[in-house]
Write a structure and sequence with these properties.
This protein is mainly alpha-helical and about 850 residues long. Helix content is about 55%, strand content about 0%. The strands form 2 sheets. It has a two-stranded antiparallel ribbon. A two-stranded antiparallel sheet has the order 3-4. Strand 3 and strand 4 form a beta hairpin. The longest helix is centred in the last third of the chain and has 28 residues. It is elongated.
Length: about 850
């Protein structure tokens, strides 16, 4: 065992135990002082590092470790080109209006006895037009249109109902400017069908069919539609897919709009096509930027442009370009037009495909593509367009792997937008919707993105401000069986619970404890999930006394912890002697996953046992103590340092409770043998932790006798030379108990312990009155049978001890500190309080005992020596 000499110790800066190294602040001083005091009482919260997650180099939707079946998730790799986009942009917002059932009347049931006149083919072609759509889009009447199509498909020789014939001459007929596709129309007629008949109309001009002589007269235009009639009129159906318009509603372009398109937009589209044909990527990219800037300036993005479909068709034809930078610019244009349906899905897949290549990350920092993606995230319904949303958020998730992009996304409220999505899904599930696989796929991408966004400095405040932590707790309740999702959520919590405010928010949530226990129970054998959930629970219980009690009181919580302890301990024992594959973390270190789970689970038990109501219960659990001792008996501190140290710290917390049912006391022989192995190891921290347990166990004489036989008391005296303040403190704590036994006292003087204790008083007392008090208690116990101070302590030691006690008991001398300006008033009050209440009472009694038994008489020489 390596120790430091007195000279070496004195050369070290004389700092109080609560002063941190480096720059100090009042809050840090007080915090560390309180933590040090908690450790010295025998109970301590265990600290461990956060589980590290290797970066997924594949940049895929679900990663290589996903437990999802291939058929339950969209693929990360796919082919995509212009053919995957609909030229007519057939996407249309789905109506959520529940339609009334159609009262269908058979065609021939309405026939009268009189045989109706069979209309001519010309009458059929010109007269059987669909009815005018109602003014209210929520009251669509499909019955008449359905019957009309049925009648059109009937043979001309069949009799038509009087209802159908009477409809030809009514005002419900559409204008001849709105032709329809007939069932038996030829190829030429089908090619002239307007866009809106195929489900979408976004302003594309279509050739009109010449009206026949039997056509019905078009209804007169309103005064508003006649404005600006100086030029040719064009019909448009841009409103047909507008969110505020009615399906089928047509708007006419003004002369100014026609001219603007032909003079400004059309030339840019032609130049884009020309550049694409010549494979001039640079020119194509520039013209695409010019078109986007023009449309943005004129407020023609979204659904405001009546030539929207024409522009989109031109853009779709250019998507076969090989340059991903151009594809991204084109995808931005498509998404800016607020496409829906298949085109939205294809555009999101295209952006995702581009984002998979890390080399493309700089392109996402140009322009406003990040804003467009977030706007798509906000405006896309997770229930009707779930797959598109998976790829949209999936792209954002991949981009959050870039530190620069992460900062931009946080500034652009990406955390808040994702929180809104989580809240929306939770609300719909609360209202009765089922938590489907597709929703789970969306949430896996959203939580993975949040996991990366949580790393920035400003993210914690944003997560708390938008109540994302509460939303994530509800996600856990609704999707507990989803292993991928639970892994992402636990990763988020493992990051944010490093901070007290987030720990408090999570601990205050009414279902958080139950949710985490359910995850552990559902995914016991999924180590990636277990290690992070255990880490989160360890963070919650590290400083929060209420959290310790609430977690332990949660039904089945401690049984689950013991079940995990048993399973992973058995796995570790099976792996001993075998070459275990270790996981490489982001910082290049390797981690044994089984050991890492044990570290985190044991830490939760250690933190729970700090509670004065919970600790005695755990201390009485023989199974728990047995598992802890098996760890100490099977693991070596040199290869599994953190696991062993956490286990000893847990044993120390449990040994603090000296109850009749204590399993530690019952199994104390195994405990002592396991700890002796650590004392003999060349590891100072392990030795200190073992001595903490000795400080509790040496309250029993049988333990003191056992350790004295092993010469542990002599080792403790040697440790007084250590320059480590905490090592000295722990050594003193155990020596106090040893000095209770008269037969152990001579050892202290024989090992130069009196001189070493005096040096400890001289070196540390003014900065650590607690330690000074322990030294006085050792000397008090040691001198229980004193008859002469010189005989008891030694002549020089007695003199030095008297002088230093007189000095330290003088208030002005004792509290005149050179570092006083480094602490605030609160810490100064605490410092004076420990001097007054802890040091002075025992120091005064010791000084009085020394002075009472001092004598000036010289001791008689031994007659036999003359």
């Amino acid at each position: 065992m390596s120790t430091e000499s007195n000279a070496q110790r004195k050369r070290q800066p004389d700092r109080p135990f609560y002063l941190p190294k480096g720059e100090t602040t009042s809050s840090r001083i007080i915090t560390e002082a309180k933590e040090s005091l908690n450790n010295r009482t025998g109970l301590q919260a265990v600290v461990t590092k956060r589980p590290c997650t290797p970066r997924d180099a594949t940049r895929s939707l679900f990663g290589a470790t996903s437990t999802r079946a291939p058929e339950n998730r969209p693929p990360s790799s796919f082919s995509l080109g212009s053919r995957h986009f609909d030229g007519s942009d057939t996407s249309r917002p789905t109506s959520r209006t529940r339609l009334q059932p159609i009262n269908h009347t058979p065609l021939f049931s309405a026939l009268t006895e009189e045989k109706p006149k069979i209309p001519s083919e010309e009458e059929v072609e010109s007269g059987l037009l669909p009815p005018k759509p109602p003014s209210d889009p929520n009251k669509v009447q499909r019955g008449k249109a359905t019957r009309t199509r049925l009648q059109q498909s009937t043979s001309v020789e069949s009799s038509l109902s009087s209802e159908v014939k009477s409809r030809v001459d009514t005002s419900d007929v559409k204008s001849v400017d709105e032709p329809v596709r007939r069932v038996h129309s030829g190829p030429k007629e089908r090619s002239a069908v307007p866009v809106e008949e195929r489900g979408e109309g976004d302003g594309r001009e279509m050739p009109h069919r010449a009206p026949s002589s039997a056509s019905v007269r078009s209804p007169p235009r309103s005064a508003e539609s006649r404005k600006g009639s100086g030029g040719t009129k064009r019909t448009s159906s841009a409103g047909s897919t507008g969110r505020g318009g009615s399906a089928g509603k047509r708007e006419e372009e003004t002369a100014e709009e026609v001219m603007f398109y032909s003079q400004n937009i059309a030339p840019l589209l032609e130049r884009m096509t020309e550049a694409s044909s010549k494979k001039d990527s640079k020119k194509l990219g520039q013209v695409t930027e010019d078109l986007y800037a023009l449309l943005q300036k004129e407020n023609l993005l979204g659904r405001n442009c009546k030539q929207r479909t024409t522009i989109l068709k031109s853009i779709f034809k250019l998507l076969d370009v090989d340059d991903s930078r151009i594809q991204l610019k084109l995808a931005r244009l498509i998404l800016a037009f607020k496409v829906t349906g298949n085109n939205l899905l294809s555009a999101c897949k295209l952006v995702f495909k581009i984002s998979r290549n890390e080399k493309n990350d700089p392109e996402f920092l140009k322009g406003d593509i990040l804003e467009i993606l977030q706007d798509t995230l906000r405006s896309t319904d997770p229930f009707s367009a779930s797959e598109a949303l998976v790829f949209c958020i999936g792209a954002l998730k991949l981009l959050t792997g870039n530190a620069t992009i992460v900062k931009q996304l946080v500034k652009k409220d990406c955390i808040e937008n994702l929180a809104i999505l989580l809240n929306s899904i939770n609300k719909n599930i609360r209202d009765g919707s089922e938590p489907t696989t597709q929703l789970g796929n969306i949430l896996v991408q959203a939580t993975a993105a949040l996991r990366n966004l949580a790393d920035t400095g400003a993210s914690r405040e944003r997560l708390l401000g938008c109540q994302a932590i509460e939303s994530l707790c509800l996600i856990v309740d609704n999707f507990t069986s989803d292993g991928d999702l639970m892994l992402n959520v636990s990763r988020i919590f493992s990051k944010v619970t490093l901070h007290t405010d987030c720990c408090t928010a999570l601990a205050d949530h009414p279902t958080s404890y139950k949710s985490f226990i359910n995850i552990l129970q559902k995914h016991q054998h999924k180590s990636d999930v277990v290690v992070r959930v255990s880490f989160v629970l360890g963070n919650m219980t590290a400083k929060n006394e209420i959290a310790r009690l609430r977690l332990f009181q949660e039904a089945g919580s401690f049984d689950i912890l013991l079940s995990l302890f048993r399973f992973y301990l058995e796995q570790d024992v099976k792996n001993q002697g075998k070459e275990v594959k270790k996981e490489v973390t982001e910082d290049g270190t390797t981690v044994n996953k089984t050991e890492d789970v044990l570290i985190k689970v044991i830490r939760v038990i250690a933190n729970l046992s700090i509670n004065e109501n919970v600790g005695p219960v755990i201390c009485s659990n023989y199974q728990c103590v047995d598992f802890l001792l098996k760890v100490l008996e099977t693991k070596d501190v040199s290869s599994s340092e953190e696991l062993v140290l956490n286990t000893v710290a847990t044993v120390n917390n449990l040994s603090f409770y000296n109850t009749k049912t204590s399993a530690i006391n019952t199994l104390q022989v195994r405990v002592l043998e396991a700890l002796l192995k650590l004392v003999l190891a060349n590891n100072m921290e392990a030795m200190v932790e073992a001595c903490r347990v000795f400080a509790n166990l040496t309250r029993q004489k049988v333990v003191r006798d056992f350790l004295a036989e092993q010469k542990i008391d002599r080792m403790l005296v040697t440790m007084l030379d250590s320059g480590n303040r905490e090592v000295v403190y722990i050594s003193c704590g155990v020596l106090i108990n040893f000095m209770v036994d008269e037969e152990n006292r001579p050892m202290l003087k024989q090992e130069q312990g009196i001189r070493k204790l005096i040096e400890v008083l001289r070196d540390f007392s003014r900065t650590d009155w607690e330690l000074a008090s322990l030294v006085c208690q050792i000397l008090w116990n040691y001198s229980g049978k004193i008859t002469s101070s010189n005989d008891c302590f030694g002549q020089q030691e007695s003199h030095d001890l008297t002088e230093i006690l007189l000095e330290l008991l003088d208030r002005d001398s004792a509290l005149d500190l050179s570092f006083k300006e480094e602490i605030d008033d609160e810490m100064t009050d605490y410092f004076e309080e420990t001097w007054t209440e802890q040091f002075c009472p025992v120091a005064e009694q010791l000084l009085q005992r020394i002075e009472t038994h001092q004598t000036d008489l010289e001791p008689l020489d031994n007659p036999s020596a003359s």
